[in-house]
Amino acid sequence: MKWYEMTVDETLAKLGSQAESGLSTLTATKRLKKFGKNQLTEGKAPLGLALFFKQFKDFMVIVLLIATFIAAYLGEVVDAIVIVIIVFINSILGYSQEHRAEKSLAKLKQMANPVAHVRRDGAWLTIPSSDVVVGDIVRLKSGDRVVADLRIMTSTHLSIEESAMTGETLPIAKTSQVIHGEQLNLGDQTNMAFMSSLVTSGHGIGVVVATGMETMVGQIADLIVQAPKQTTPLEKRLQNLGKVLIFVSIMLTSLVVGAGIWQGQPVYQMFLSGISLAVAVIPEGLPAIVTVVLSLGVQRMIKKKAIVRKLSAVETLGSTSVICSDKTGTLTENRMTVVELYLNGRLFNVGGGYRLTGDITATSNQAEEKMLARFLQYGSICGAAEFVNHNGESVIQGDPTDVAIMMAAAKKSLQLTENLQIKKITEFPFDSTRKRMSVVIKDHQQHYAIVKGAPDILLKRADRIEENGRIIRLDQQQRKKIELMINQMASKAYRTIALCINPLQHPNRVKAEDVETGLVFIGLFAMIDPPRPEAKQAIKQCKIAGIKTVMITGDHAGTARAIATELEILPNQGQVITGSQLEQMTDQQLIEQVEQTYVFARVTPKDKLRIVQALQANGHVVAMTGDGVNDAPALKTSDIGVSMGRTGTDVAKEASDLILLDDNFATVVSAVEEGRHIYENIRKFIRYLLASNVGEILVMLFAMVLGFPLPLLPVQILWINLVTDGLPALALGMDGAENNLMEQPPRPIKEGIFARGLGFKIISRGFLIGIVSFIAFLLAYQNGAQSIQYARTIAFITLVTAQLIHVFDCRNERSIFDRHPFGNRYLIVAVLSSFALMIPVTYVATFQAIFQTVALSLRDWLTIILLSSIPTIVFGFTKR
C-alpha cells in the first residue's frame, strides 16, 4: 500500500480505526491473535552441537576422516588417533569463530522500544511494543524509538533520524500532508515513520500501518534470511585441492596395486601397500596450519583496528576486486560541518573540520570583524544545540545543523556560544512547511528577530541587506549575487542555511509571520558531511592495487556525485545511477551497466543486494561496507561484509565478516593488504607441504614398482607430515609481506591454488626430493651389512633433511636468492627445532622402538646432507 498517497481519513478508514478513540481492546486482541506479535522472526541458525558438527562439512576435513578410517583399518591406531585429534582441534577453532555469526535478527528485535504509547477505547495506554497492532494510534515524542511503521496524523516540529534505514545524514522533518509520487524512497516519504528509527525533536501522532515482518525493517530482516551465504575463494580452493588429493590417491593406489599384482605380489599385501601410499598423499596438518595462520592474521588485524568474525574472511579480503562503500559514516564523517560563510559580499573559509578549534578567513576591517562575530553568535542562538559535559569533556549536542553552526562560532571564540548578555524572549521552532525557524531576542536594549532557514525562502522575504555595518536596500543586483553564491555552494553539494534579522518595535506582540517578513539579509552558512581525511589516499591505494571503489548511498545524487568527485572515486566517463533508474533496469541490464557505474544514489536495501549480485555475476569478489540496518542484507550477501564499529548498528555488525573499530575506510585497505599477505603465505606452505608429500609418494612408488621393500613406515610418514613439516610450514605462514604486494592486481576469482607455476614447482621439487631420498635408501639397502631398519632410517632422515633445506626456497615465488634466505627468524627456529626433534627419534631407544629407526654414524650424516642439498642447488638458480 502507498500509504503516503492517502489522506489521514482515508488511511483510518482503510485500517478500521478512529482518530479520537483508537481501536477497541476487543479489536486489538483479535488482530494480535490473527496477525501475531509486533516482532521480527528469527531465521533458523545452527546452534550448539549443530554449529560444531557443521565444521566437519569442510572437504579437507572429510578427506582426513577417510584417511583416519584407512589408518585404523591398517591397524595403525596411533595414526588414526592423532588425525582425529587434529580434526577435533580444527573444528573447535572454527566453531569458536562462527559462534556469533547468526545473531543479526536477534539484534534487530532489540532495536524496538520495550513499550509503546497507544490510544485504545479513547484512553492513552502504555503497552509492550510487541502488542501493537495495525490500526493502533501511537504517540511519538523526542527520544522515542518508532515501534512500527506509521502514517503520520499530526506533527509538531517532528523530526526523525532515519540514517540507519536510508543512509541520509540529517533528521527528516515529518508532516501529515499527502505526498504523490511513484516508487518514492523511504527518505522522501515524509509523512511516514518507520520501525526502529529515532525521534530527534518535536512530537506527533501516527496510525500503525504495518507491524513485525511486514514493516520496512521486517522486510530487511527477511532479506537477511534469504541472502545466500558466499563460499570464500579460500574455501573453494581448499575444496578443489582436496578433490585433487583424492583423485591422486585413487590413481596411485590403483597404479601400485596393479604393478604389484603384475609382478606376482600377493593381492592382499599390495592392497595394503597401496593404501599406505594413499595415506602419504594427504597432508594431515594442512587444515590445522591454515586455521592457525588465519588466526595469526586475525590477531595482526586487531592491531590494525579490525575485528574478523570469520577466519576465512581474512584471506578473502586479499581477493577483493570491488569495494562497495556506503557514503555516510564510511567515506564521510557523518558529522555536518560548516566549511564556508558568506556575508558582507565575501566568502570566508572555515577550517578545522569537526572540532571546536580551527581557522576562519581573516576579516578586512574592524566593522567586518564585528559583523562576522555577530553573524556566528546569532546563528548559534537561533538553534537547538548546547554544550554538555560528556566524560569530563565539553561537547555540543543537538540538531546536526545547529551543532555545526555552534561549532563554527566556537572556532572564532567560545564566548560567541554564550548568551549571557542576550535574552531569548520568544521562539518559533523549525517547521517543514515554513522551512525556517526564528527567535526573538533582546540584545543591548534592542529587540531582534533572528530568522534561519532555507535560502530561497528567506531571500524572498528579505528587502534589506547589511553591508559594512549599515543596513541598506536589497536591490536586484545584490539579490542575483546572493543567488549565484547559493548556486555555487549547491554545485559543491553544500547544504546552505541563510540567516536574517528583523529589528522589532513591539517584541511582546508578535507572531511568526510578523517577525519573518521584511527581513534584513545577513549571510549564508555552507555545510557538508565532509569526506574522511584519510579516505582519499586509501582510494588511491585501491586504484594502484587494481581495486574499484563504488559508492552506494541513500543520499541525493548531487551530494553523492560531489563527494565521489572530491574523493576521486568517479572518473570522467563514470556513471551515476539513482534508485529510480535502477528500478527500471532488468538484472541483465544492471550486469551490463555496473562495470561503468561508480556511484549509486537514493537506493533501497533491495537495490544494494542487486548491485552486489550484479558485480558478483561479472566475476568480482565484492567487499561491502556499511553501518546501517539498510546495509545488513548486502553485507551478508557480499563476499566480505565490512561494518563500522563506532557508528554501526548492531544489525550491521552481526551481518558482517569484518568490523572496523575506527570506522576508517583506510583500515579496509590495510585489511586487503593483510589478506593478500596471508594468501601468499598460504601458497608458500602449501607449496612446501605438497612438495614434501610428492617426495614421500615417489620414494614409496619407486620402491614398490621396482620390487623393493617399503622405504618408509606409516608412522614415519605421519611424523614427517605432522611434526617435521608442521613447524616450518607454520613459520612460512608468518613470513613477512613482499614490498610490491599492493601493486599487483587482485587474483582472478577462478585462479586455482596451483596457478602461476606453483604446480610445476611442487612436482619438480618433490620429484628431486623423492629421487635423492630413494637413492639414499637404495645405497643403504644394497650395502647388505645393515638391516632394513638402517635403510629406512637413512631414507627417513634424508627425506626430512631435504625438506628442511627446501623450505627456504619456498619463501619466494621466483628464486631463493630474490629474498634474504634467512630473513624469517621464525623459520630458522622452526627448522632447527624440527631437525632437533629428529635426534631423539634416531638415538633414543624408546623412540627407536616406535619409529623403527637405528643410530647413524657421522659418515651417514655427511652422505645425507650431500644428497639432501641437491634439489635446492639444482633449482636455486632458476626463476621457475
UniProtKB/TrEMBL annotation:
Pfam families assigned: Cation_ATPase (PF13246), Cation_ATPase_C (PF00689), Cation_ATPase_N (PF00690), E1-E2_ATPase (PF00122)
Signal peptide coordinates: none
Domain of life: Bacteria
Cation-transporting P-type ATPase N-terminal domain mapped to chain residues: 2-76
Record localization: Cell membrane
Keywords: ATP-binding, Cell membrane, Ion transport, Membrane, Nucleotide-binding, Phosphoprotein, Translocase, Transmembrane, Transmembrane helix, Transport
SUPFAM superfamilies reported in the protein's UniProt record: Calcium ATPase, transduction domain A (SSF81653), Calcium ATPase, transmembrane domain M (SSF81665), HAD-like (SSF56784), Metal cation-transporting ATPase, ATP-binding domain N (SSF81660)
Membrane-spanning residues: 56-74, 244-264, 270-296, 685-710, 716-737, 758-781, 787-805, 826-849, 861-878
KW Signal (keyword) present: no
Family: Belongs to the cation transport ATPase (P-type) (TC 3.A.3) family. Type IIA subfamily.
Name of the featured protein: Calcium-translocating P-type ATPase, SERCA-type
Species classification: Bacteria, Bacillati, Bacillota, Bacilli, Bacillales
